[in-house]
Design goal:
The chain has 25 helices and 24 strands. It is of the alpha/beta class. Helix 4 crosses helix 25. The chain is globular. Belongs to the peptidase M49 family.
């Protein structure tokens, strides 16, 4: 396990600009967010809550004086640092599996030294006895369906996923009962020889309801129950914090969102949560932005059950102004997408795009609290596509998280030596714009063809639209009650991220977009090759790509190869939706862009270089991205999961050559990032912010100060 690089997520500049009431609201919302920690730990692994308790117990046993604890326990400074590094990495990932990649990591400190470290404190020793073997045990190597090498806490019982037919039937039953899967887990067991499934639903209220499953043949001899009360204690604590926060809301919309969210947590009813999300979308540019609930489905092997997440962010006015300006003109760029048929003066955009593009909220915030296994640079929510399509969505960029990208080389060793300085100087600029376009136009575009309710369609089913991939009428769509995640299952998140990345990359060279971010012919960051030249192969005058565009296409290659680090050749599984997406895009470009990319690999020297034919990026690269984007978009809009699976799984196959690339990537792998958040403290009616040093000790102290029960 490599020692992490600790990055402090500074928030003081934004937080100190809040009014008193806004600080109080942020304080209680942050408390609510962090109270979801144990839910996430429980969702990660059986031992994760125990390891968390062990780390905090050791901190409290020495009151943060780790050197004294180590000296008393006869543990060397090197061994102590190994434990502190593990603890920081565990806390930052909220579990003993990487939030990005889902691989398990184990301590470098030996079992014997860790046992000595805990020996002087009764509670710590008792906790260590319970988790020691599981901390170090490998396999499991990663998260995934129960097996010899993988484990999951979303499906309890080693045989829970053994029958895909039964799992599919349970999903159908839940759909018929309007029971959404995001806040559930599934448990399988036997009682008196009867095969039983319990759908565990997150709620404060506890109850058990036997479900009538006789209408589904494959479940006829099974007992199914809906068991409410999963994560009861944590949700109860969260609701207490939300009630305190509700005294300090800035507007009626926030009050409604909190009430509906609390009601959802109390009852387990996700329809109430969906209603809260519909209101949340309309609350644009609040002084404190929040996200709370069962949000992302990345870690569920079936792609439908969601990890808990709690976020509190404080907007930055100047950055937000730029993003809102982009949002206000974003519709003009929707017309540039390959499935849009109308011109920019037309209202009609065709059957696969919404005719009305309501500018979404787009804010840049500093995160005060980001309680999640993976801290993303940006998000687009809600994750309910019908709400996105009919009501709208929000985009949030985390500026203090984005800053961490400036300190990272991110695959610099994959770039030719003569290009490295230029690539590194421009990488962050390209990355920033890519993330912005990914969120606002990647996740924010598209129209699902759907039977909205029985015999009520959002298109004409008698004369269905033509499929641009086949030239024939579409022959599939979403049936009443079906959702994107429900239909596409394990493919949903990675295909969604892949499509969003493609949209960002496809639109990246649009001059009006680049101008919004200050990149023009006269831009100060423009190197000597950003002038107008004649592209001889095209025999026409064209704009030469400036470095930021060239970097974008080079980054597609670099990130595609880097993504292999999150592929497990033993289980043949991808551990991260974005990594699989990046690799799949690059595989498509290698096949489809007529030699635009070359990869030079010297395995014995651990050298690998990806190169782009600079003069042909627009002629070969952009059309290739457009072809892949159109295919994924149409599959997604028409619920054509079979063709999508055939296309996507073929592209994401990892060949022997790619495995050699992977070895080089792992040889040069960067140390992981661990993020250190601030805390707020209430003194009478005054809120104070405390930030921590960017060290493993500081990160551990920040978690101890949260005083999670």
């Amino acid at each position: 396990m490599a020692a992490p690089v600790i990055f402090q997520l500074c928030v003081a500049s934004a937080f100190n600009g809040l009014a008193k009431q806004e600080k109080l609201y942020a304080h209680w919302m942050a408390k609510a967010a962090w109270r979801g920690t144990r839910i996430i730990l429980r969702q990660v692994s059986p031992e994760a809550n125990g390891i968390f308790d062990l780390i905090i117990a050791l901190y409290r046993s020495c009151k943060g004086d780790w050197e004294q604890l180590a000296a008393t326990a006869n543990v060397s400074p090197e061994e102590l640092q190994q434990f502190l590094d593990y603890a920081a990495l565990f806390l930052s990932n909220i579990g003993n599996y990487f939030g990005s990649g889902d691989q398990k990591f184990v301590p470098e400190i030996s079992k014997e030294a860790l046992t000595r470290l805990a020996s002087g404190h009764h509670r710590a020793k008792k906790l260590l006895d319970h988790v020691l073997e599981d901390m170090y045990q490998q396999p499991p190597l990663s998260l995934g369906p129960h097996g010899p090498l993988t484990q999951t806490s979303y499906y309890l019982g080693d045989d829970c996923l053994d029958s895909p037919e039964e799992i599919s039937s349970i999903a159908t039953l839940m759909e018929n009962l309007s029971t959404h899967p995001e806040n559930t887990r599934l448990q399988r067991y036997q009682t008196a020889g009867v095969d039983c499934y319990d759908i565990l639903q997150a709620s404060v209220d506890e109850s058990t309801v036997v479900l009538n499953s006789t209408s589904i043949p494959s479940l006829d001899n099974k007992q199914l129950r809906l068991v409410r009360g999963d994560h009861k204690d944590e949700l109860e604590q969260i609701c207490k914090c939300l009630r305190r926060a509700s005294k300090y809301t800035s507007n009626p919309a926030q009050q409604q969102v909190l009430q509906q969210t609390m009601d959802s947590f109390l009852l387990g009813d996700l329809e109430l949560y969906r209603e809260a999300q519909m209101i949340w979308v309309t609350d644009k540019a609040p002084p404190v932005e929040t996200v709370l609930g069962f949000v992302e489905t990345y870690r569920d092997p079936l792609g439908v059950r969601a990890e808990f997440e709690g976020i509190v962010g404080v907007p930055e006015p100047s950055e937000t102004e730029l993003l809102e300006k982009l949002a206000s003109v974003a519709e003009a760029f929707v017309y540039k997408l390959p499935w849009v048929t109308g011109g920019i003066t037309s209202i009609e955009k065709g059957p696969f795009e919404k005719n009305i593009f309501d500018p979404p909220g787009f804010s840049s915030v500093q995160s005060l609290a980001y309680c999640s296994s993976n801290i993303f640079p940006g998000i687009n929510l809600p994750n309910y596509n019908d709400i996105r399509q009919e009501i709208g969505y929000k985009n949030i960029l985390f500026s203090n998280r984005m800053l961490a990208e400036r300190i990272r080389t991110r695959g610099l060793h994959l770039v030719a030596e003569q290009e490295q300085e230029k690539y590194q100087n421009n990488r962050f600029h390209s990355y920033y714009i890519w993330v912005v376009l990914h969120e606002i136009l990647g996740h924010g575009t598209g129209k699902f063809l759907a039977e909205v309710s029985e015999d009520n369609y959002n298109f004409d089913p008698v004369n269905p639209p033509l499929n641009p991939l086949t030239g024939l009428s579409v022959d599939c769509w979403y049936r009443a009650g079906q959702t994107w995640t429900g239909v596409f299952g394990d493919l949903a998140t990675t295909v969604d991220e892949c499509r969003a990345e493609l949209v960002g990359a496809y639109l990246f060279d649009e001059r009006d977009i680049l101008a919004l971010f200050g990149y023009t012919e006269n831009s100060v960051v423009k190197p000597e090759d950003c002038n107008f030249v004649r592209l001889q192969r095209l025999c026409i005058h064209a704009d030469v790509l400036c470095s930021v565009i060239y970097n974008m296409y080079l980054q597609l290659g670099v990130d595609g190869i880097r993504g292999l680090a999150n592929y497990d050749p033993i289980t043949k599984k991808w551990g991260q939706a974005h990594s699989r997406a990046h690799y799949t895009i690059f595989r498509h470009l290698l096949r489809d862009s007529d030699g635009l990319y070359t990869v030079q690999c010297e395995p014995h020297a651990n050298r690998l270089t990806v190169e782009v034919d600079r003069g042909n990026i627009l002629r070969k690269g952009k059309p290739s991205l457009g072809r892949m984007l159109l295919m994924l978009h149409i599959y997604r809009c028409t619920a054509d999961v079979s063709k999508c699976r055939e296309f996507y799984e073929d592209l994401s196959q990892v060949s022997e050559e790619a495995l050699r690339w992977r070895n080089v990537v792992l040889y040069h792998k960067e140390p992981p990032l661990a993020f250190c958040h601030a805390n707020t403290f209430l003194f009478h009616d005054h809120v104070e912010l405390r930030e921590y040093e960017s060290t493993a000790k500081g990160l551990i102290q920040s978690w101890a100060d949260r005083e999670l029960l």
